[in-house]
Amino acid sequence: xxxxxxxxxxxxxxxxxxxxxxxxxxxxxxxxxxxxxxxxxxxxxxxxxxxxxxxxxxxxxxxxxxxxxxxxxxxxxxxxxxxxxxxxxxxxxxxxxxxxxxxxxxxxxxxxxxxxxxxxxxxxxxxxxxxxxxxxxxxxxxxxxxxxxxxxxxxxxxxxxxxxxxxxxxxxxxxxxxxxxxxxxxxxxxxxxxxxxxxxxxxxxxxxxxxxxxxxxxxxxxxxxxxxxxxxxxxxxxxxxxxxxxxxxxxxxxxxxxxxxxxxxxxxxxxxxxxxxxxxxxxxxxxxxxxxxxxxxxxxxxxxxxxxxxxxxxxxxxxxxxxxxxxxxxxxxxxxxxxxxxxxxxxxxxxxxxxxxxxxxxxxxxxxxxxxxxxxxxxxxxxxxxxxxxxxxxxxxxxxxxxxxxxxxxxxxxxxxxxxxxxxxxxxxxxxxxxxxxxxxxxxxxxxxxxxxxxxxxxxxxxxxxxxxxxxxxxxxxxxxxxxxxxxxxxxxxxxxxxxxxxxxxxxxxxxxxxxxxxxxxxxxxxxxxxxxxxxxxxxxxxxxxxxxxxxxxxxxxxxxxxxxxxxxxxxxxxxxxxxxxxxxxxxxxxxxxxxxxxxxxxxxxxxxxxxxxxxxxxxxxxxxxxxxxxxxxxxxxxxxxxxxxxxxxxxxxxxxxxx
Length: 660
Prior knowledge:
By secondary structure, this protein is an alpha+beta fold. 51% of the residues lie in helices and 13% in strands. Its main location: membrane.
């Protein structure tokens, strides 16, 4: 039996190591910050890649070449090789584009002119403009960012550039962005001496032995009305005079049927002594410094909440002798309970409650599965945010964020299996049935996410969106689930089943006592406790949600880590308070109350997300948003609920053995 278990563990470890090798050597960002990127020589040609058109108000991505944009000279190629695991699984790669960059060469170039716009093309361009769609473009693996300014102050950076502008007050207000201004930051690998010096064609012949890496790209999109016939004789990549690029200009290229749209662009290179990750860290620090006060105020409010809860817990419960009296009593026979209760009164009432403290809860298999999933999500959240805060990993795009989340979720299936089976064995007093617990654990949250993603994918397919994932993509996800997550879950359960049980100082009664007087209002109040964990994480969640939905840069991971630590503390104190109040009322249903009290924060998270249903353009967008909101709220509920159950169990155990 031991040899068989060892062979199973060896097989699972081999599969995990194979997955890690695949992810860290091909499909994930390189450790140490952003992707390292290739070194280029001066004058070397590099072409930008384009992704999907995205909008925060439709949530429906569409193809870049679905609009009348310029095609590459060699034609549109199939999606490029995936840069991370998520793109490989979901087949959401990038396409080639005609935008050419010659390293170190400043130039202003003509790209192409479209055929006369047809009526359907005009309507589609206006629709994409009204829905505030943005073009996502990438150069050397870096996403292009545009600056968001207000009266000269930098508010942040947003992914891509808009399809067009809609100027209210005009009869024909839609104008297309047909001129792009690129600012490319280069880092010289050897002998870079002058920070901030500009490069150009004059320097193209100097330092041929030096390599240059792209460390940042900014883009400004504007609408330019070229004089009629001024670009008719131009070919692709012919030079044109520079343009004073302003986002909103009076002479804009309006979207009108029968007109040809000329596309042009400018490239300017700027040398930088910053590496790729250091450059982004410095820029983002300057962006978020004005908002640090908001994060600090939120953290201060959370600390005050923790202090109040700690004082309430100590003076209300921990100083009462009733809590310590739990350790003085042992199990009684069911027949002697009522007799002793009548004869001895209050003292024997405490004995009766003491025997029910460690009694099994209802639906304990479900409770163990939820707790295991919650522990898994806790590990994923803490490791992901801590690694991002320390600069070990970087998540500049949503696909990289999903890649790291998927990898960590698969790996920490081991923790989920261990925690759920450990809780199961300590509730039952034995490990019988632990395999079914692991199966529940493997299917519950993963099944919910899979069903929601399937429904969202069906909506994408109905709307003709590029977010649609093929059946093969879902088969790959099922393969990861069956070959990685399920074996790791069973491996963790096996290790937990072979470990020693927690020494319980009280022997549970054979039969749970019926609670004669139950206060329904107290059960409702359990859900009110969820407002405290929710308020602890609300500010950071707002910034995360805003950055994901609107494509904004996010780099305040240090505040997010602190908020998660405070969230864990608040959940722990809330669960302990609710558990103590339940036991004071002789209510032995503390297991689920310890889970639901902090776990109800997921309900408030869902209500908050529903309140953010603003300016969604269609019913399909609303359904997609609700689906993703259910996933986020469920993960929050499992995160906080698992902490509540485990902390409450350890607290009661410590009280019972007189350690508190």
